[in-house]
Design a protein that fits this description.
Number of strands: 0
Number of helices: 6
Strand content: under 5%
Distance between the termini: 53 Å
Order of helices and strands: HHHHHH
Oligomer: single chain
Structural class: mainly alpha
Length: 113
């Protein structure tokens, strides 16, 4: 790379500010590992639901979030957030220790009305 030029101070500051803004959005972690879904008696699309919530939280794109939610639940025959019975099996196996039951309640309120 003959024409390579490192970022200047102003460019680095802009990237740092963008990173701060991005990291300030509330996000549900959920790596799509799927451990939480394996034992769910209601076959809830947990990580797909969290993806939909993150679309809304990061981009404020309700249409996109609703589309992703429907695709990840109804579109694949998986359960919806409101179908959670609160058994906690998902949380017992979650390597990230996410409060899945609480996050599913929030997702139901946001995406199911």
């Amino acid at each position: 790379m003959k024409d390579f030029r490192p970022l200047d101070e102003q460019e680095r500051a802009a990237i740092d500010r963008a990173r701060e803004i991005f990291n300030s959005y509330p996000k549900v972690p959920c790596t799509a590992c799927g451990y939480c879904m394996k034992g769910c008696p209601k076959h809830i699309a947990i990580y797909g639901i969290f993806q939909a919530v993150n679309v809304y939280n990061m981009y404020r794109d309700m249409g996109g979030a609703e589309h992703r939610y429907k695709w990840n639940t109804d579109g694949h025959g998986w359960g919806r957030a409101s179908e959670c019975i609160g058994c906690g099996k998902c949380e017992k196996v979650c390597p990230q220790h996410i409060a899945i039951r609480e996050e599913l309640k929030k997702a139901a309120e946001l995406l199911e009305g």
